[in-house]
Structure formats: C-alpha cells, structure tokens
Amino acid sequence: MEFVDEKLYKRIKNAVGRAVADFGLIEEGDRVAVAVSGGKDSYTLLHILEELRRRAPVKYELMALTIDSGYPGFRSDVIAAHLREHGFAHHVESTTHYDIIREKRRPGSSYCSICARLKRGALYTLAQRFGCNKLALGHHLDDFVETLLLNQFYVGSLKAMAPRMLADNGETTVIRPLVYVEEREIIPFARGNRFPVVCCCCPVCGKADLQRKRMKELLKELEKENPAVKRSLLRALANVQPRHLLDRELQRTCAIP
Ligand SMILES: Nc1ncnc2c1ncn2[C@@H]1O[C@H](COP(=O)(O)OP(=O)(O)OP(=O)(O)O)[C@@H](O)[C@H]1O
C-alpha cells in the first residue's frame, strides 16, 4: 500500500522493526494473528506488519481476527471491507459477550476489564483454531507507560506490559510490536491513510477508564517541561536496578548480598 507522509510511515515501520528485533517478536515460519478491533492502533499494526513481511528475510504469515462482542451498532462489515480491499485474510467471530457481561457483572466492577478478559480469551481460542502461534495486539508506547504508572499509583506493583509473553493457554505467544510507537504518531498515520475507524459501541465507549485518563493528563503535563518523559519511562523499563528496589524475592533470585 502507498502511505501518505512517507517520513511518518518510515518512522513507525522502523520502530516496529526495532521492537521485532529487540524482543524476537517474529520468527521464521510464524503464523501471526493480528487482533484488529477497528481502532486506529490495530489497523496501523496490521498494515505495518504487512509492509515488514513483504521486505523481511524471514518468512511469516499474517491474518486478522476481529471479535464482535455483540454491542448493537458494531460495524464489523466496515472492517471486513477494508481488510478485503487490502487483501488480508480476516475472520470475524460473533460472540455473546454483551449478554454475558449484562448477566454476570457485579455492581461496581469494571466493565472494561470484564470485556477485555472475554475478548482476550476468545482471541487465544481463535488463534489456536486458525493455527496461529502468535497473537499481535495493538498496544503502543503510551499504553505501556500509562500501565506502568497505574500499577504503581493504584495497585502497588512495579509492572507494565510484556512485549512478548506466552499466554495462559501455554500455546499462543502474545506480542506487542507497537511498543516503541507513540500514540501521537499513530493518530496522524491512521487519519492520513483514512483507515475506517469504527467504534466498539459498548455502553461505556469513549468514557475511558478515569484512572487511565488521569495518567494521560499527568503525562501531558509533565511533557510540557520534558517532552521526552514517556520515552524516559519506557527506557526505565529496560533499565531495572534490582539492588535499588525492595522486592525480597528479586533480591534472592539476583543473589544480591
Ligand atoms: N474487538 C476486538 N477484536 C479484535 N481485537 C481487539 C478487539 N478489541 C481490542 N482488540 C485488540 O486489543 C488491543 C487493545 O485493545 P483496546 O481496547 O485497549 O484498544 P485501543 O488501545 O483503543 O486500540 P485500537 O485503536 O486498536 O482499538 C487492540 O489494539 C487490538 O489489538
């Protein structure tokens, strides 16, 4: 595909290529399922992985998977038409997640976390069904650092997200190739290339998780003084100093005297 803004395209492609190399995200013979929600991030991920695939010395296959959670108005047909136009293999799985959430959700529990858990389970099952050993998700750099802050501020845990991780099913490796790409690069890329973004149509769509919103605001504020603040947080995740932490298990495993 021809992308508008060649410079931006190359920057994103190079960042994805670097992540693939740094974490060994894609290997010879992989069948990679790309989870495409119809949002800007996963469209970007799929298109960039396809461009890399065409140029890569290693051979791998791609297919796109979409979960229709059953929210009225979700336009999986728009996603399917775009992917068909660009020649991607694609499967849409219709589920009854909306009904399950309405029945099972306890008052006060987070809508998004139940929905995400159900979707993730369905994606693992589908990846296996289609013979895909990898599942690529569209989380980007901002997601990593916001999650890092959220876990520190509200959970009391020093963790972000894994760029590569074996799923609970023991079969599927989850990969996040957009780890080095900032959301502010994805927004103009998706817009400029007219990716047909569709809303998930869930009852809380757009009313993003308030705590995550707070983290976004905090980072924006900090960026006024230090524009590289998010990059610095990401670097911190790759530069852990166990001696200067309080985790006793970690001290034992690192044999710190
Ligand atoms: N309905 C879905 N079908 C397939 N994959 C999904 C679906 N919803 C989410 N995903 C996958 O999980 C990732 C993270 O989901 P999240 O809901 O946080 O979306 P997001 O950050 O808004 O990204 P996007 O712009 O791709 O929707 C998505 O980028 C996508 O890879």
From TrEMBL:
It comes from the Bacteria. PANTHER family: AMINOTRAN_5 DOMAIN-CONTAINING PROTEIN, SULFURTRANSFERASE-RELATED. One of its GO terms (biological process) is tRNA processing. GO terms for molecular function: 4 iron, 4 sulfur cluster binding; ATP binding; metal ion binding; transferase activity; tRNA binding. Residues 205-239 form a coiled coil. InterPro entries: Rossmann-like_a/b/a_fold (IPR014729), TilS/TtcA_N (IPR011063), tRNA_Cyd_32_2_STrfase (IPR012089), tRNA_thiolation_TtcA_Ctu1 (IPR035107). It comes from Geobacter pickeringii. This is tRNA 2-thiocytidine biosynthesis protein TtcA. The lineage of its organism: Bacteria, Pseudomonadati, Thermodesulfobacteriota, Desulfuromonadia, Geobacterales. Pfam families: ATP_bind_3. Keywords: 4Fe-4S, ATP-binding, Coiled coil, Cytoplasm, Iron, Iron-sulfur, Magnesium, Metal-binding, Nucleotide-binding, RNA-binding, Transferase, tRNA processing, tRNA-binding. Residues 32-194 form the tRNA(Ile)-lysidine/2-thiocytidine synthase N-terminal domain. ATP binds at A35, V36, S37, D41, I67, G138, D143. HAMAP family: TtcA. Gene3D superfamilies: HUPs.
